[in-house]
Each structure stands twice: as C-alpha cells, then as structure tokens.
Amino acid sequence: MKKLVKYIGMDVHKAMTVIVVLDAAGQTLAQATIQTQAATILAFIRGLDGVLYITLEESTYSAWLYDLLSPHVAKVVVCDPRKNASYFKSGNKSDRIDAHKLADLLRSNMLNPVYHGNAGVRALKELARSYLALVEDVTRVMSRLKALYRGRGIACGGQRVYSALSRSPWLEQLREPGLRGRTELLYRQLDALTPLRREARKALLAESRRHPAAKSLRSIPGLGPVRVALLLALMQTPHRFRGKRQLWTYAGLAIVTWGSSEYCLVEGRIQRSKRSVLVRV
Fold first, then answer.
1. Residues 184 and 255 in one domain
2. For the residues of 174-234, what is the DSSP string, one character each?
3. Can you give the residue range of the structural domain that contains 177?
4. Is the pLDDT of residue 259 over 90?
5. How many domains does the chain have?
6. Across the chain, what does the average pLDDT equal?
7. Is residue 139 situated within a structural domain?
8. What is the rounded distance in angstroms from the CA atom of residue 161 to the CA atom of residue 142?
C-alpha cells in the first residue's frame, strides 16, 4: 500500500512552535502549537505516519532543527525567508497562517532552500563565523578611533595611531577630557579584541588543515590560508550547486551585466539599441 505524503510547515519561535500538516491536495490534516523543545517536537513527528516532508525558515534554530529532524523524516527543507516575503505580505498574518503557507509552498515546490547538508565542516563554519565577527569588531573600533582624531582636525593616516607604544603623543593632542576618556576606552577595547582575533585566526587555520580540500585550494594563485579556510567553511562543497555558473555567482566571482531600454523604434521598425551593456565583476 502506498504511503500518504504529508507536508509539514513549522513556524518556529523562542518558546512555542506552530505546526501545520497538509496532504498532497492541500487539505489540512493536523495543526498544533507545541513547545520549542527537542523531545516535544520529536514526539509530535513520531506520531505522524506516511512520508513526511518538513519545512522551516532559516533562523537561529534552523541548524539545530535540521540535525534533529533529518533522521526521522524523508526530507527537511530550510527555506530562505527573504524569497518568501512577497507571499507572506498578502492577507492576514499569524503564526498558524505562516505555518500553513510554508507547508503549502513546500507542497507546491516553490521554496528556495538554504544549504544545511554537510555536517563535516560544522566546526570550521563556527570558527569562521567567530573569526569574521572579530575582524568586523576590530575594524569598527579602529574606524571609530580615526574618526575621533579626524573630527578634531588631526591627521592620522597609516597604522601608527593604533600602536600601543606611540599612543601618548596621540592622546596629548586631544584637549577635551571627555573625548580623551572616550579614546582611551576605545584603545582598551582594541587591546582586548586584537589577541582574540589572533586566537580565532589560529584556530581557524588549524581546523582548515584537517580538510583534504585545503591543500588543493592552496595551489590556486591568490588564495592564502585564511581565504581557503573561509571558502571551505562558507561554501562547504561545490556539489551543492547546480553548475559552475551558480558556484561562481555564490562566490562573488561572476560577471553581472545590467541593461535597460534595449530596443528602440527606427523608421517604424523595432531595433536593438546600440547602447553598450554595463558589466560589473
């Protein structure tokens, strides 16, 4: 006997999760509001028979739920909420309506999935996120320091303004006590973040060397150890892409063309405009 296919939409929140189950015809088979806890969610899923397809939106909980649910259902689709925005803006909105719309989009095969398949690079991915966050934090503090000096007409080009050995002459140029105190706090923040960034970089490179693909990527001119580690962490595997064009686009290496008003009317006939198409790499 052929098993019934069921489409499950989950609207996940911090405390509660709303679940709607649809059949292949779009009829509602079940709906529930349960706690966002592993035991509660698995108990609900195990109570359903048939071939189960589940979808939820990419969020803080998506990686955890993907790993939790994948062994118990036929397929888990983590979808991109930005691609669903236009569909969710129309009509009334509630958690149950959102869960129903997600299940219906899954049934209609209209979702854009977010890749969650390769658990082997999970540690590298987390280290890459830590490193990138610390790089952004350090850059932000350095930009704020230079903005303070420039705001008082003090030229501060180069890197010497950040050096711990030459800070006293820089601070002496700030006459206002409040401004000087603010600058000292930023220097202390920079001193705390810089060793953390080095530590995160070291851990990232050490984890990257454990992956065989790192050696192959290092042979490509222009790719250093940090860039290779980030490529492995963020791209994970080239096999997730339909073809090389999609891979280059994801990596930011694709050529993007932009054109408008491509056709014009010449002596009553439609002709292609001679205006050149803009190309951006």
1. no
2. ---HHHHHHHHHHHHHHHHHHHHHHHHHHHHHHHHTTSTHHHHHHTSTT--HHHHHHHHHH
3. 120-240
4. no
5. 3
6. 90
7. yes
8. 9
Structure tokens at 156: 């501060």
Mean pLDDT of 96-101: 94
230 contact partners, CB below 8 Å, separation of at least 6: 128, 131, 132
Are 148 and 183 a contacting pair, CB within 8 Å?
A: yes
276 pLDDT band, cuts 50/70/90, is low
pTM score over 0.85: no
The answer as to whether 113 is a domain residue is no
Residue 42 tokens, joined: 């698995």
Q: Are residues 227 and 143 in the same domain?
A: yes
Query: By percentage, how much of the chain surpasses pLDDT 90?
Result: 67
Beta-carbon neighbour count of residue 253 at 10 Å?
Answer: 9
pLDDT band at residue 3 using 50, 70 and 90 as cut-offs: confident
* CATH code for position 82: 3.30.420.140
